[in-house]
Amino acid sequence: MKTMGAMIAAVLLAGPMMAIDLGDGIPMAGITMQNVDGRALSIGGVKGEKGTLVVFTCNHCPYVKAWEARMTELANTFSKQGVGVIFINSNDMAKYEEDSFANMQARARKLGLEVPYVVDASSDVARAFGASKTPEAYLFDASGTLVYHGTIDDNSEKAEAVTRTYLKDALTAVAANTVPAVQQTKALGCSIKLRART
């Protein structure tokens, strides 16, 4: 059986299926979502001077749990460098109790997350992006143009074994007003548990 790391290496550079593509703008940027601190926030409202990072994530996914410390460090670091960051949970909380709002609040506190972690109450924001995995990162430059989409790095299992820091490299480029060298990788994780449309 292949290890998770081997699976990542095998599919990482495959082309993802997505509703938005490189060069596109931020969809549903004005839609407000409830943050863990109770505020109603939108992606457009947290947009940074240098760029904006949107990460679709959750609480229960083992891939998220493996990457969450690195994701939190990147979010907290680059939010201080002019990049607006927002984490979005689009999962159906009625079916996945671990992804409940109360558990989101607890997880944000435990991680020391200093950026918004919001609820996509209809899952329509995830649909508009074409997001299908947790975690899945979308990085937009200062003009609001998508310049990186995909995974965090090349080894969710072992931080010490990482050789390609895709998201960190892309964030570093955007913070320096340059274009990331690698702009697209394959997002790998759990499927987003979308709510049924009503």
Provide a concise account of the structure shown.
The chain has one domain (4-191): Glutaredoxin (3-Layer(aba) Sandwich). It is an alpha+beta fold and 198 residues long. The protein has a 7-stranded mixed sheet with strand order 2-1-5-4-3-7-8, with helices on one face. A two-stranded antiparallel sheet has the order 6-9.
Q: How is this fold's topology laid out?
A:
Blueprint: H1 4-11, E1 33-35, E2 40-41, E3 51-57, H2 62-78, E4 83-89, H3 101-111, E5 117-119, H4 124-129, E6 133-134, E7 136-141, E8 146-150, H5 166-175, E9 190-191
Parallel strand pairs: 3-4, 4-5
Antiparallel strand pairs: 1-2, 1-5, 3-7, 6-9, 7-8
Structural write-up:
The chain has 198 residues and is α+β, with helices and mostly antiparallel strands. It has one domain: Glutaredoxin (3-Layer(aba) Sandwich), CATH 3.40.30.10. The chain has 5 helices and 9 strands; from the N terminus they run αβββαβαβαβββαβ. The strands form 2 sheets. It has a 7-stranded mixed beta sheet with strand order 2-1-5-4-3-7-8, with helices on one face. It has a two-stranded antiparallel ribbon with strand order 6-9. β3 (51-57), α2 and β4 (83-89) form a beta-alpha-beta unit. The radius of gyration is 15 Å and the shape is globular. Residues 1-18 have low confidence and may be disordered.
